Amino acid sequence: MNLPVLTTAPTGGTSIIFTLGYLVVIGAAFYFIAIRPQKKQQKAHAAMLTTIANGDSILTSSGFYGVVIDVMEDVVIVEFGNNKNCRIPMQKSAIIEIEKPEETK
What we know:
By secondary structure, the protein is α+β, with helices and mostly antiparallel strands. The protein is built from 1 helix and 5 strands.
């Protein structure tokens, strides 16, 4: 009884290439789904914060509405409510929305 002789041994080279290909595709998908939109949102928020000026109405991350009284490097002084005595310093990063006052002619 003669058994057939295999002249070539199976190699795992192609499976490594496919595995690396899958990893690259999954990494690219993760980048475009998670990382890129977050960086884009951070840039838009930073650009918005550079436009803060005195008299702007703002919304804070805690849900308070106020008016900007003074702008410093990382801190703004915000006046809350109609009471002129309620002025609180807060970080710029806590501001999530800015509304510019309308110019009247």
